[in-house]
Amino acid sequence: MSEKPRVTFFSKKNIKCPSCYTEIQREEMQTGRGRINAGELTQELRRLYIPTQKYGIVNPLLYPIVVCPSCYFAGMVSDFSKISEEMIEGIKEGEDNRHKIIQNFFGGDLDFTDYRSDITGLASYILGLISTIYLPPEASPTARRGLYALRGAWLAHDIFEKNQSNHFKEIRDSLYFQSYLNYDRCLERQLKNQEPFDGFIWMGPDVDTNFGYDGLLYIIAFLTIKHLDTFDGTEKIVRMGGSKRILSKVFGVGKSFKDKPEVLVTLSKNLYGKATSILEKLAAQGVDTSIADDIENQEDSE
Description:
The chain has 2 domains: 9-199, no CATH class; 224-297. Helices cover 51% and strands 7% of the residues. It contains 10 helices and 8 strands. The protein has helices at 77-80, 85-93, 95-106, 118-131, 141-163, 166-191, 212-226, 233-251, 262-284, 290-297; strands at residues 8-10, 15-16, 23-24, 27-29, 38-41, 47-49, 66-67, 74-75. The strands form 4 sheets. Strands 1-4 form a two-stranded antiparallel sheet. The protein has a two-stranded antiparallel ribbon with strand order 2-3. It has a two-stranded antiparallel ribbon with strand order 5-6. Strand 7 and strand 8 (74-75) form a beta hairpin. The longest helix has 26 residues, at 166-191. The protein is globular, with a radius of gyration of 21 Å.
């Protein structure tokens, strides 16, 4: 391993890969001594960090995903315990594919026994995203895919900002879209009781604050509006109406929201206002946007 940095350490308690039984040393963050200097919260509910003179930028987002350095199965620690005997053969069969994906994205295999970098942090979320197909429905695999893709998009954006490589811009945009698709699907599957959220306790989306179900709803609306140009005609209006309806639930139209995080209420109201403005501009262009109002105002049936 490379020289040990001052912000993380390798746990003495190893994790065993459920597929190939490799012993994995998990990298964990040191605590205290001013290593983390939290900055603002973005519109995507991502926490930014301010560099310190001693440690520079410390990004906790790099470390939650554990990766088997041998077969590349990956996930949060809780994911490893949810793998059944029936899924192990599939994980083994998918090993070559996982290696090929990393080789295609990064030009070769990566060393997951060394300290995390932005690159291996990003790769860990890509592998975690792929590995969710082996999780049972009660582990909320679709919601986890949305979360892992979103965090991966954040890290890909960080790398793009540093080197301006279009390759990482494309990875970022692809992960954002994958995040949107899976967050949207996870809500539908939860409402149909196909994938309950019981196994998805930390909804984040970042590692510092768990905004829970309201945060998940907000992210769905945010990503829908972010990808609005992928929809045409009536579908765009329908999506906007659905987003406004979701956001009104988050900030509590006609209800008390004193128990909700103030920052989430504020961001939801701002995004609701943006959605309203988009619809008003479309209406001014002669587009019939009445269906958005119908969707926003419909009564809950669940």
